[in-house]
Amino acid sequence: MDLIVGAGISGLGYAASTPNDYQLIERSNDIGGYCKTFYNGEYVWDCAGHFFHFQHPELRDFVMSNIPDEEVIQVRKQTQIYYKGRLIDYPFQMNIHQLEQQEFIDCLYDLFNIPEEADSPASTFKQMLYAKFGKSIAEKFLIPYNGKLYATDLDKLDVDAMGRFFPYANKEQIIRNFRNPSSQSYNATFLHPLRGCIRIIDSVASHVDMKRVTLGEELIAIDMKQHTAQTTRRMLTYDRLISSIPFPQLLSLCSVNYDPAIYSCNKVLVFNLGFDKKGPERQNNWIYYPDPSLVFYRVGFYDNILQQDRMSLYVEIGFGQGDQVPPADTLLERVLDDLRKIGVLTDQRLEAYNTVLMDPAYVHITHQSETDKAEKMALLSNNDIYSIGRYGAWKYCSLEDNLHDAIQLAEKLSQQKDSLHL
Ligand SMILES: Cc1cc2nc3c(=O)[nH]c(=O)nc-3n(C[C@H](O)[C@H](O)[C@H](O)COP(=O)(O)OP(=O)(O)OC[C@H]3O[C@@H](n4cnc5c(N)ncnc54)[C@H](O)[C@@H]3O)c2cc1C
Fold this sequence. Notes:
Helix content is about 35%, strand content about 20%. The chain is of the alpha/beta class. The model has no long low-confidence stretch (mean pLDDT about 95).
């Protein structure tokens, strides 16, 4: 029996595609993990924006075939950066020509005058930003924005900490973009169910035998040698254990020693806010805020995405791992004040809100975490334990990546099982 832990997209994706006998346990009382939706009157809120940008047509069909076309909206992404009182297109490095003239000259000059010593390969994320884009682009946007998001010193992160999600651009692409704006990015268009991202989960779950899923059951210990798992309700014996819980937690449950400092991450507090009417005319799906005096790093406009006639926002605030997150009520006024400062909030009245704390949210990928993870993953898989998902595999990835990895693992393990029986 395959014991699957966690009913987010990874755990459900594995259950939906394995031919093996399985049991799935989930600590919370709902399926979905971070891909959940909250309904409050007319407002439809996810845990921060959760949008699907497909790279694999077969996964798109797998997920979307269960959701009627009229319930899905395809959105052409419109995102901007609020920089010194003006909005410029995202990504910053491709749109420096939209800055005020002196700022533009600084960025362009520095882009073509990157100091010699920076030619040696960068070994941290921050060094990479300076080496690829020069001082001004790095210091005006890339460092303050990513510093707010990750809530850590960017010198601690690996060069490739954001993988394909970082919008790289060379000098030629930057200059070409002055005249011919490029719309190429990993999520230039995205799909979104009108009733929120939980519809994606429901679609995947429709391929799962829900009689084999137990909610409100937490995994609390694993005996790797005996292949047994202690939960809050019972002792289970498994052939293989497929976990999507955060990797360091899995190591603890398996009694594998590790250095917690290696596995650091940020946490994100999300405010979902519903107002009585539309805000000032703008089409943005979301806007980035590098200004350190503003509490949030990004604000998303559900009403523009879902074409609703009342302003509905998600506001994301980054915290360091050790930071105390203040009670939501005390932060709410600060959030509303900052929304007024930037002109998003004028005379609209707040009608409803909720908060979601995502912890972990963005893992801090470092050279050490990658090396340690590879070593410990090998130890676990030698004991028939597989750790998948954004937090299980301790990486930066999307919902589609999670589904892809889960299906691949199910295929791999079913072949292994077949060969054992040959
Ligand atoms: C701010 C933010 C915005 C994002 N936006 C997007 C986006 O727009 N598009 C996109 O594609 N991706 C987005 N993502 C990424 C996306 O949320 C993740 O890739 C995805 O939800 C991870 O799914 P998962 O199943 O791997 O993990 P999770 O969703 O974390 O699921 C793990 C499950 O395990 C359960 N669990 C934990 N411990 C135990 C235990 N001991 N016993 C039993 N169960 C347990 C948890 O309750 C949870 O349900 C975003 C992430 C963040 C932080």
